[in-house]
Amino acid sequence: MSTFIIYLKLGYRHILDLYGIEHMLFIIALVAIYLLRDWKKVLFLFSFYLVGHTISLNLSAFRILNPDPQIISYLVPLTIFIAAAGNLFRGEKSTITTRPTKFIFAAVFGIIQGFGLANYFTFIIDVNRKITLPVIAFNIGIELGYLLVIFLYLFITWIFVSNFGVSKRVWYLVISSAIAGIALTFMYETRYWIQ
Description:
- This protein has 195 residues and is an all-alpha fold.
- The protein has one domain.
- It contains seven helices and no strands.
- It has helices at residues 3-16, 21-31, 39-61, 69-88, 100-124, 132-163, 168-189.
């Protein structure tokens, strides 16, 4: 099997693996307020996240910038909590238009999440090999995994909201509340300042 395919699969599987659930939770929190018909807005928002995490993954993989993994391990669930909690404070009559701040948050949180992905990548990569191709393949695998999670979430949302009559607002409040609660437990578990 080629190096490209190996790292593509590693990236894809890392996003879909329950041991990497924090990545799934973040991306769902980011898009929780959207419906399937909003897919263009979702992809546009996702592209800001993608740019952020691609930058930090590359900075870390090529050993240009390597923040403390313990701090990143705490910041990752913090970004999940902030994204989910932000959905909880949307007004009942909020429109689906995405404010520019959401794009900025997506990019900044993408940077933090990218450093988290880089922690895993630097663990699996052979430092004695050229890493350009593995980084590209791993990143593409990650994107494919994220896109699958987004599509599945939007499809499940469509089933509940459009077919079972669940209120869109109730749906994203329940999903976001659950994600925020899970993120709080992850934050508690990754308190780096307490040994």
